[in-house]
Input
Amino acid sequence: MYETSVNSLLLLGVLWPLMLVPLLSLKKIRPITLSLAAWAGIPALFAALLVSPSIAHWNFPWLLLGMKIGLDATGTLFLLGSALLWSVAGIYTKAYFSKEDRQISFYSFFLLAMAGNFGLVISQDIFSFYLFFTLMSFASYGLVVFNKDKEAFDAGLVYIILVVIGEVMLFVAFLLLAQTSDVTSFESVRTGFINNPNKNLVILLLFTAFGIKAGIIGLHVWLPLAHPVAPTPASAVLSGAMINAGLLGWLRFLPLGEIISLYWAAGIILLGLLAQFYGVIIGLTQRNPKTLLAYSSISQMGIMTMLIGFGFYLPEHWKSILAGITFFALHHGLSKGALFLGVGMLGSTNKLQRYAIWLGLCIPALALAAVPYSSGMTAKFLLKSYTAYFAAPWSSILSVLLVIGTVNTTLLMIRLLYLVRPAAAPFGVSTSFSLLWPWILLLAGILSLPFSLDFSLKIMRELNALPFLYPLFLSIFITVFIRKIKKLQNIKPVPAGDIVLYYEKVLLFLIRNGKKFNFILLYYTRFLSFLTAKITKFSDKIAAWIK
Output
């Protein structure tokens, strides 16, 4: 009886935010509904803490093509991080918007996106995952354009275009997967990859579709556009929870641990490395803290992209690598969410308040910098240990690159703390206790994370922490060196979205010259048909002559 009641929290975690949305339209109970909306993530948080992954499974054969939800070890950590961040952001939202109409409008999209995020985490089949992933993606558009100014609508346009492209690619990939499997569960779909004649096409579609959400290099442009214009609680969940949905999609559907592919491994690892360094280079030029944090997310997701590449090269070690990716996603999501929420409270001119918040921001910033006895130290140790599985000299090269990546992340965090220093101009809204206390709880969660899991606690006890200080010292030295070079200080910030400008130019060029391209394409197609016919005719003559 107790187990059934506890497992019901999984359903409640998804249904509760959905049920609150229509209640927001009822004026008589609106104050109560708004109070409940602020705490809408709590059932899912309790589910992550109390539900046992081994027994938490629900089947609905009458719904869609057969719907299955449940939890496994990976889903539990993803749900824990997402639910904690959504809960904190929900409580934060109530104080962030002073007007009731703004709260109603924001919570309408916020709750739908929350339900979609929780739903895809606990989904155990491709159709329910697609349903919740789509709900989250389209509801998030309302969060991006919430302020209804030109910048918000421009960012929303880029976001929704990429979302639609990703949804179409994902739908096609799922149809191709369903053709080779009688069952739509994750395990059956991954196993079916081995005999799938369209294996490489499906991998490409899945990697690209989920890569849009994860912010892979080239498809990352929505992140630095959306984060600065979205309200602070929306930025926190966009970067801390929703971006991890793309990563979870890779883990659920790519044949990691099932097949070995040197080509996919090399390509994905290279993309991850490019994102890791590109995000830092562009991020260091930024002067808007939220834009810098967006590029930091791109860089951090580059590290997780690399690990996906590891899975294609080292299928025999995939279980170990999966544990590292999951912990890294939890660590990054909570830390990045705390940074966004903290930055959003720097609107006060009270120096004492600003100093207190700045010191609080140091906690997630140092965690991302992997200082000793932080969650970042555990995550970076796990990542570095996986490089030992590679043959020389790649093991040494990858290990060095990860250390350089840690230095780069630390440089970004130092830059962030400089931009939001107490003497800087106010940013965001003024601090209040209602904003402060949920953020403090999140900071406490970040501090306790490395000591909350058995394998992390074991690493803390056995690991020599001193080497993890070297990247911090090196980053401080580089920062001091840069501060003395005036030319480097006067570098203009790269426009948010960077290469989206080139995408726009190409699109406008195609639109303006569409008729010319149609004309060229028509004659090119006719030429190919003519050439194919001639080759076929010549081949038939050769075959007849041989006979």
In short: The two ends are 79 Å apart (CA to CA). The chain has a mean pLDDT of 86. The chain has two domains: 13-497, 498-528.
